[in-house]
From TrEMBL:
It comes from Cloacibacillus porcorum. This is ADP-heptose--LPS heptosyltransferase.
Length: 330
């Protein structure tokens, strides 16, 4: 049995999902050990017998809990543990050490802790020319190819993206999804600029707004989705041909499932998630070319709830032109 210890945002998990899906379909026995809040996402694509919910925080600190898990899942010393996360997360590393198994860890996009002290097998990170920021999928691909043979090509894995196991039938069809929320508030496009963009759209365009934020927007054909499950949101996005949104996991799902998407990108995410180097992935990313941020974080993150300058520099007119571009390619 091969065990995977995973965590992260929806976007990170969606990048690793094609590899899990291929290994499972190839007959490899695997268990993905995940926090409770990640189960709904992975269970839409992988069968329940390949997923196990564990308390990763408790595992990082409790020897008793590690013994319990090894007994519950009949983990032997010959089993292997894989950590495909592309950044060094101390809680995950401490949890893996408690399980006391042969463990394979990625060196990390940016090395932030002393991996050597854990005694794990370290998979060397792939490096971009002139230390350029590489797309996160390239790091994930490098990790899995270092450990598993016979994988399809990088392009094939993402262009033949796994389908949802269960689909929620829509009560209403939409033309455009707008994602107004974001994981960090400084990455959210402001309400007044969203409204200016909506004012430019045709009255007959059927729009659905998703996200947990409280942005109050208006359009003659705007529907706000509240209280929906994550699987319902995924189905809405899958069945709606156009998507415009902030950089979130749901934005990445919009184009990975085959639709046309436009992302308002900022806060240091350029190159890590967007743009892609696969030409048949249909997503446009709008960003401030003068932004100096790298990695994950805006260097002005102390702004708190305020949008980052690179977000504010993107005008509603630019978003509208991007919308026309993805619409005209349908």
């Amino acid at each position: 049995m091969k065990y995977f210890l995973d965590r992260g945002g929806i976007g990170d998990i969606l990048i690793r999902l094609p590899y899990y899906h291929y290994l499972y379909r190839s007959g490899i026995e695997l268990k993905i050990l995940i926090p409770k809040d990640k189960y709904p996402v992975l269970s839409m694509f992988l069968p329940a017998n390949s997923l196990e919910v564990i308390n990763q925080g408790l595992l990082a600190h409790s020897r008793c809990y590690s013994i319990y898990l090894k007994m519950k899942y009949n983990i032997s010393d010959s089993d292997a543990l894989y950590i495909p996360i592309t950044y060094n997360h101390k809680k995950i590393l401490d949890a893996a050490q408690r399980l006391n198994m042969p463990t394979f860890v990625y060196e990390g996009e940016m090395v932030t802790c002393d991996l050597a002290s854990y005694g794990f097998k370290i998979i060397e990170r792939i490096k971009g020319a002139d230390n350029a920021v590489l797309h996160v999928s390239r790091h994930v691909d490098s990790y899995f190819r270092s450990l598993f043979g016979g994988l399809p090509s990088y392009e094939e894995l993402f262009l033949s993206y796994p389908k949802m196991l269960r689909d929620t039938k829509l009560q209403r069809c939409y033309d455009l999804v707008i994602m107004t929320d974001a994981g960090a508030k400084y990455r959210r496009y402001p309400t007044e600029l969203w409204q200016k963009f909506l004012n430019m759209l045709p009255v007959a365009l059927r729009i659905v707004q998703v996200g947990e934020d409280d942005l109050s927007l208006s359009h003659p054909n705007l529907t706000r989705v509240r209280g929906a499950s994550i699987s319902e949101i995924f189905s809405i996005i899958k069945d709606t041909p156009l998507f415009v949104g902030n950089e979130t996991g749901l934005t990445h799902w919009a184009y990975l499932c085959g639709n046309r998407a436009l992302c308002i990108l900022g806060g240091g995410d350029r190159n890590r998630f967007l743009p892609w180097d696969i030409k048949d992935i249909h997503v446009i990313s709008l960003f401030d070319k003068s932004c100096i941020c790298r990695g994950w974080h805006c260097h002005k993150h102390q702004l708190g709830d305020a949008a980052a300058p690179c977000i504010l520099s993107i005008t509603p007119e630019e978003i509208y032109q991007g919308f026309l571009e993805i619409r005209d390619k349908l």
